[in-house]
């Protein structure tokens, strides 16, 4: 279907493929680098293949944002498909240079482009895109789509339980001293994304995996108005049994309006490492 307002996002949005197809969302891939091997996220390498390689080899990959040219190609494609305006969602500008690439590319677009810093990643961005897409389905214009996404962005809650500090340290997210301390006392970190600016902050760690998943559940739902309809994603770095158990608990306890399970982009997994598990979602505003 051709839309007058196109939706474009970078590949860290982690939207289910059926939603991408249903709403005609164009995805611009990020890049994953293992040594001298370069892969386009979701094209040359799937999340499942990435996490399997990560655990099997112990290699630490690096990542790279899409160049402006990749966004320019997407903008031209959208215009050729009939779009008269474009909304582009990108991973938090505090986590990546993707926002700068998209802004630079917007100057070369054949139609106006609204670049949105999602102040988040994974389904923290994905839920914003879906809010805009659903408003568009109801006949909403660009301003209404942007307002819907902003409401979801401001309401977003996203907590991640990590199995190790190693990948945060290797990715430059924490210092070596903090990693050593965490290793000595066997901390399982819990972090969250601040929706106000898209930065990552520490929450309640635990001494065991069971404990940190319990903290994840408790801290996540403390920040939601559970009397409102909930839209929740369980995200996991290839630990499906834990993810399915967590999803069953969420369903049984809170009966969300939407509940999905996703394996996040390798670009995110390069910093969170194997067996990370997360809850990401929001309560519909009153």
Nutshell version of this structure?
This protein has helices spanning 17-22, 47-57, 68-80, 98-106, 123-137, 142-155, 166-170, 176-184, 209-222, 240-254, 266-272, and strands at residues 5-10, 26-28, 31-34, 37-40, 62-64, 85-90, 113-117, 157-161, 190-193, 200-202, 230-236, 258-262, 277-283.
Classify the helix fraction into a percent range.
Answer: 40-55%
Structural class: alpha/beta
CATH architecture of the largest domain: 2-Layer Sandwich
Instruction: Determine the CATH topology of the largest domain.
Output: Hypothetical Protein Tm841, Chain: A,domain 3
- Shape designation: globular
Describe the strand arrangement of the main beta sheet, using strand numbers: 10-9-8-13-11-12
Q: Bin the strand percentage.
A: 15-25%
Description of the structure:
It comes from Thermanaerothrix daxensis. One of its GO terms (molecular function) is lipid binding. This is DegV family protein. The protein is α/β, with parallel strands linked by helices and 286 residues long. It has two domains: 115 residues, Rossmann fold, CATH 3.40.50; 127 residues, 2-Layer Sandwich (Hypothetical Protein Tm841, Chain: A,domain 3). The chain contains eleven helices and 13 strands. A six-stranded mixed sheet has the order 10-9-8-13-11-12, sandwiched between helices. A four-stranded parallel sheet has the order 2-1-6-7, sandwiched between helices. Strand 3 and strand 4 form a beta hairpin. The two termini are 32 Å apart.
